[in-house]
Amino acid sequence: MTLAPSRIVRVVLLFHRSLVGLEKTLLCLLLFSMIGLAFFQVVLRNFFDFGFVWLNEVLRAQVVWLVFIGAALAADQQRHLRIDLVSRLLRHRVVIRRLTDAFADLFCAAASVLLFWAAVQYIVLTRPFSPETVFFGAPEWMLRLVIPYAFAAMAIRSAAFVVNGLRRLKREIAVQ
C-alpha cells in the first residue's frame, strides 16, 4: 500500500513545522537560561567573591548551540548566506529572478553539504581527545553534534527552496 502524494506532503509539512517549533522553543530556552546563568554568575562574583567554574563551560556550550540552531532557523526563513542585489535588480523579470534565486539556493545547499561533511569530520577527528564535560559526564564531542545538525538542516531546507522555486517557475511559465 502506498501513500497518496498529498498525504506524504502533509506528513512532511507537519514534521517540518514540528521541527521548526522545537528549534524555536530550544532557542528561547537557551537564550533565557544563558541570560539567567550569566547574571547569576556575575552576582556571585561581584557580591560574594565566589563563582562556579563549570558555569563558564555551560555558557560556552549554550552559545554554540544558540548560534547553530539560530542559523538553521535563519535558513528556514531564507535569511542566511544570501545577497539579494540580483533579485532587486531583476524585480520585474520574474523568470530570470526565479532562476537566480534557485541558483543561489542550490549554491547554499551545496555549501551546506560541504560544511556538514567538514563538521562530521571535525567531530570524528576530535572525538578521541574529547574530555568529559559538566553535563552529566558527557563527552565534549556530543555537545558539538549541533554543528552537523545545523548544516544538514540548512542543506535540506535550501534544497527544498530550489525545488519549490522551480515548481513555482514552471507554474508561472505555464500561465504566461
Polypeptide structure, described:
Helix content is 80%, strand content 0%. The longest helix is centred in the N-terminal third of the chain and has 44 residues, at 5-48. Helix 1 (5-48) packs antiparallel against helix 2 (53-76) and helix 2 runs parallel beside helix 6 (146-175). It has 176 residues and is an all-alpha fold. The protein has one domain (52-175). The chain has helices at residues 5-48, 53-76, 85-89, 94-126, 140-143, 146-175.
List the helices and strands and how they pair.
Layout: H1 5-48, H2 53-76, H3 85-89, H4 94-126, H5 140-143, H6 146-175
Helix pairs in contact: 1-2, 2-6, 4-6
> Which spans have pLDDT < 50 for at least 5 consecutive residues?
none
Task: Indicate the radius of gyration in whole angstroms.
Answer: 21 Å
Give me the number of helical elements. Answer: 6
- What fraction strand? under 5%
Mean pLDDT: 86
The backbone outline, from C-alpha atoms, is elongated
Number of domains: 1
Number of strands: 0
What's the main sheet like?
none
Helix and strand string, N-terminal first? HHHHHH
Helix residue percentage: over 70%
Distance between the termini: 38 Å
- Structural class based on helices, strands and sheet pairing: mainly alpha
Characteristics:
single chain, 176 residues, mainly alpha, elongated, cell inner membrane
Short description:
The protein contains six helices and no strands.
